[in-house]
Write a structure and sequence with these properties.
Layout: E1 2-3, E2 32-37, E3 40-44, E4 50-53, E5 59-62, H1 70-79, E6 85-89, H2 95-98, H3 101-106, E7 110-114, H4 115-123, E8 125-127, E9 130-132, E10 143-145, E11 148-153, E12 156-162, E13 172-176, E14 181-183, H5 205-218, E15 224-226, H6 235-257, H7 262-268, E16 274-275, H8 284-292
Parallel strand pairs: 1-16, 5-6, 6-7, 7-10, 14-15
Antiparallel strand pairs: 2-3, 3-4, 4-5, 8-9, 11-12, 12-13, 13-14
Helix pairs in contact: 5-6
Length: about 300
């Protein structure tokens, strides 16, 4: 049996709608903090993991979870001894990573993201299976890029890099060069269930594998890896994650090349012996369908 250990983390990830009726669901969410280097921390709560760089120059956050959590996020940042947020980076456009944009943009923070993130947020549409309204002006990235850019802040070089996406068509990874840290966004899920390839948002499993291959070639055994969801990780676990994706895709591709329909492929259960842990957001059938709908 192929096995990739999947560890649930204290703040269980839930892709929740942020309608008024749903906001009460966030009342009991606790934002917890893990400091991973001097001036660098990760905030865990509900939604995507938040990277924080803070120091004498400015406070930068990578993603900002759901809108109702913005006050709790600000308090967690203040408890680090950090100044208010000056810059926000969105790894992609999904609402569990950009929900706080309107708040932080409204307080004067500058928002950065790949070109496609602004396009999708401005237009609205289906994000992670939920209809999402066009974002208000305060929530939109105001600095966008095609390939990447860098900050020289807080004694580090922080690179925003786009390798072709894969989870969506706008995924960035964020690398702290001197501190040897990388935030993967949702190119890396360290939770039960299969990877989420959002084909409605331009996601493509082959692009995801290429992006992962580039990252793996860039980092070393000492790199601290922040996944989009789940606990802190490392290169060995990222390599194992990529290997399972590759094995799963190879099996699915073989069924497609044999002339099966999608329904026949699902019935064949080609991923039955790949253990992704109990539960999870994405089922084997949903992942198979996303692979089937990806163009190599």
């Amino acid at each position: 049996m192929i096995r990739l250990t999947a560890i649930t983390f204290a703040a269980t990830v839930s892709l929740l709608a942020t309608s008024a009726a749903a906001q009460g669901r966030f009342d009991n969410v606790e934002i917890t903090t893990e400091e991973i280097a001097p001036g660098v921390a990760v905030l865990f709560g509900a939604g995507g993991n938040i990277g924080v760089s803070h120091g004498e120059d400015a406070t930068v956050i990578i993603d900002d979870q759901f809108a109702p959590l913005s006050g709790k996020i600000e308090r967690a940042i203040a408890n680090l001894g950090a100044a208010p947020v000056k810059y926000v980076v969105n790894t992609h456009w999904h609402y569990d990573h950009t929900g706080g944009n309107e708040h932080f943009g409204g307080t004067g923070a500058t928002i950065f993201a790949h070109d496609n993130v602004r396009v999708r947020m401005a237009a609205g549409g289906t994000a992670a299976g939920t209809e999402t309204a066009p974002a208000p002006p305060e929530a939109l990235p105001v600095v966008t890029y095609a390939q990447g850019m860098r900050f020289h802040l807080n004694g580090d070089t922080i690179n925003l890099m786009y390798f072709g996406g894969g989870h969506t068509d706008g995924d960035s990874v964020v690398i702290w060069e001197e501190d040897n840290i990388i935030h993967m966004g949702d190119l890396y899920f360290q939770i039960p269930g299969y990877p989420f390839i959002d084909t409605n948002s331009g996601g493509n499993v082959y692009n995801a594998m290429r992006s992962l291959d580039i990252v793996i070639a860039m980092i070393d055994d000492e790199t601290k890896v922040i996944p989009g969801h789940g606990p802190m990780s490392n290169k060995a676990e990222l390599v194992a994650y990529r290997a399972v994706i590759g094995e799963a895709v190879s099996r699915i591709d073989a069924l497609k090349e044999a002339g099966m329909t999608l329904e026949e492929a699902i019935a064949a259960a080609p991923l039955a012996d790949i253990d992704r842990g109990e539960g999870g957001f994405i089922s084997a059938d949903a992942f198979l369908t996303a692979v089937w709908n990806s163009e190599e």
